[in-house]
């Protein structure tokens, strides 16, 4: 049996967490862009784009991420389309996080009082100008805490990609604890690394919140 | 509308057909690509686990190396779990599954198996002071088992309804549940129990009764006679000239049983 030292375990875990970091970044950046597009469909006045955005959110929030990953990787494979694990994981995580981000942001826009809309209309602003100068800047302030809160969820959500063969942090922990028979050391370190990834996000959010000085 | 639907059906069929064509003859595909892609376990010592540099090692990995060497192609190891190894094969993401896989009718219906390459039997294991002699004694007990494994499928049939089966995602979960006392007994393979014993844990698993003798087979896609023939020839040769026996000695610490 191979003997693992503490340093072996730690370096292997840190090396595996690069996937956790990369997947989180891809999911958050891609999901954010997609959510922004969906947001304008969701809050716009046109009826059909709004309905489609709502349907999208219902589908991706209403099904487990694990199943979405499985379908993206094996489902397309069954149809003869070869998808790489990286592409399948990114696509599934982006689609999934967009569904949550668009709901979070829609809520923030909805929270802007009716009076703001009416006042800006009274000043002769059109829809685009109202959005640009009145509604979105206020919504942005509101959006910071829940968005960062969700990004922490995304970091932890990447653990599910091990189902399609990613050796990310959680999976590396499982594999290592199986080979080293030191589960408490291994999973203790896994937890600490996740904490080290997520804690700065929370601290950053608190700072940003104070800086933007939310009025509510 | 009908028109559109039939178009859709045609497209789906074409896609499925293209998928089948792509792996029409797996053996010549392997030879032309120069790479053998094999699904191996990485959380199942001594069949497949990792070394200190995270490279896969174990019985299954050595068998994969042997086969790739005989075929004269490069080897690509794809780590899988017991839950996703068959999808990997069916979707053409690997050519072979060498993942300490036992044969059962459900699996046999969807994939093919080579001849056996490793000994394996499943039993229910528990510490000495727990009295279990047969499946009926499991009533009222909490038994840990790895989800989707042969022992899970078998035990689900023979265990009485009063027994609680706790299913874990991988062998590690099952082992940890046993070591931490969350389950009183586990259903697992002889080699897993041996690997636990080697670590001298406070809870020493003892074999209580045999669930199933299920040697390991190499899994391949259906209707691949050429690949099947090549595999069986390589395995038969490795059995006679002692190379498989050497792998068994190294990882299981016992000779290859007669008649495997």
TrEMBL record, chain A:
InterPro entries: AA_ABC_transptr_permease_3TM (IPR010065), ArtM/GltK/GlnP/TcyL/YhdX-like (IPR043429), MetI-like (IPR000515), MetI-like_sf (IPR035906). Gene3D superfamilies: MetI-like (1.10.3720.10). It is found in: Cell inner membrane; Cell membrane. Keywords: Cell membrane, Membrane, Transmembrane, Transmembrane helix, Transport. It is a multi-pass membrane protein. The chain crosses the membrane at residues 20-43, 55-80, 86-105, 184-203. Residues 17-205 form the ABC transmembrane type-1 domain. It holds the Pfam family BPD_transp_1. Belongs to the binding-protein-dependent transport system permease family. HisMQ subfamily. This is Polar amino acid transport system permease protein. It comes from Limimaricola variabilis.
Automatic annotation (TrEMBL), chain B:
Residues 1-24 form the signal peptide. It comes from the Bacteria. InterPro entries: Solute-binding_3/MltF_N. Residues 35-255 form the Solute-binding protein family 3/N-terminal domain. Pfam families: SBP_bac_3 (PF00497). The keyword Signal applies. Transmembrane segments: none annotated. The keyword Signal applies. Keywords: Signal. This is Polar amino acid transport system substrate-binding protein.
